[in-house]
Amino acid sequence: MKAKVLLVDDEENVLEQMRSALEAEYEVFTASNVGEARTTFERERTAVVTLDLSLNPGNPEDLTGLGLLEDLLTQEPATRVIVVTANNDQTTALRAVRLGAFDYYSKPVRLEDLKVMIQRACHIHRIYQRLHQSYPGSKNDFHGIIGSSKGMQDIFRFIERIAPSDISVLICGESGTG
Fold first, then answer.
1. pTM exceeding 0.90
2. In sequence order, what are the beta bridge partners of 43?
3. Which of 26, 50, 97, 110 has the most CB atoms at less than 10 Å from its CB?
């Protein structure tokens, strides 16, 4: 079965070029705005999303893609989001990675580079899925940590997003919370 990939970009020619290059290996879906992207993602739950940060053709400084990135990963932490954008601002790149972006790629797109990134992202997604199938638990039980409050569920989603990376994280809480 082919892995599902969602391509999100406000430039139709970029979407068509990327779709043509990827559809032999993946089940490809496209969206040119936030609404289409959300609807398609909710329906398909793709393994990988390529996301342009500026989805407003009239205003390239508009970074609505960052909000979409956060929404997608909140819904499905296993999804790997590759930011593909003309925005080369280092602060924006760091913000995207902090929000959970798997990779950050600056336009213009070299299709061979993008294919390698997507292949790697799909591989990590499969490993992540197998890991979670190996450790089934209830919604309120996260690998032996128990918590049903919204705060704890947010922490569990955060852990799921950063677990595949090789960074150190300290999670702190109020005194006496455990």
1. no
2. none
3. 50
